[in-house]
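Structure, all two chains, one model.
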Amino acid sequence: MENLIEELKHKIVEVLNLEDINVEDIDAKDPLFGDGLGLDSIDALELIVLLDKDYGIKISDPKQGKTIFQSIETMAQYVTDNRTK
Amino acid sequence: MDKEKLYIKSFCQISNQEVCLNDELIFRSIESDFNVFAKEIYQKFEIQYPKFHKMDALCKLAFLSSEFVLNQNYNSETAIILANHSSSLDTDVKHQKTIKNQENYYPSPAVFVYTLPNITIGEISIRHQLKSESAFFVDEDYPIELIHQQAEYLIKSGKTTQVLCGWTEYFQNNYQAFVYLVGKEGNVPLESKFIKERIINK
């Protein structure tokens, strides 16, 4: 799962244009929203598209997002358990 | 409404790889790619606003040009009236590319959110915490008289004390911004000739 965590860090920085953030400085346990990476609601939608496009995961229940996108670690675990590609 | 004179407090131009503030050249780049040029301006003037990197090119253009003008004359009641020719077409085209293939249909929310030109006003307002009157016009050329009538009404009716006006045009790396702050005080009288000399209409 370590490789997947690194992969997600790179993808998130690239897809969300987090130019002021270094991949090395991101802790996999940091909150994605609020005090952590400070992502916003548009970023959340972009993450949903990322899961669909790159891992074949469709999130149909928006309530799931709160749990899945707590941190990169929780996201990686969800991808590991549900990926179809 | 009385005919009290209005003035330009400050103005900024971004075009041809140059940034001018009040007709003084403050930055020049050799970079022809607007997005790289915009990032150079952001870094050169040590702007601290991570959301800048997420904006589309039109918003970056409007954001940067207004940044110089508003930082000199901050007022939380500043109204904003902007105009351009290409609306948000540059981003509309990018969005269209993400939805044209039904088998690879992944519209990007981060692109889609910029498919309206008045989002530029939203970005400036969020940055400066403005909850003021605003309007964005799309026209062949800069509608000077219309913009100045609106600005005059807003100021003389007491809805605000200053209005950020201007032309923010971007399409496929062709860009021009000229924004200026109008109020009851300032060094330059608000006259159409002054604006026309600085905006290259299509």
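The CA atoms of residues 40 and 64 of chain A lie 17 Å apart.
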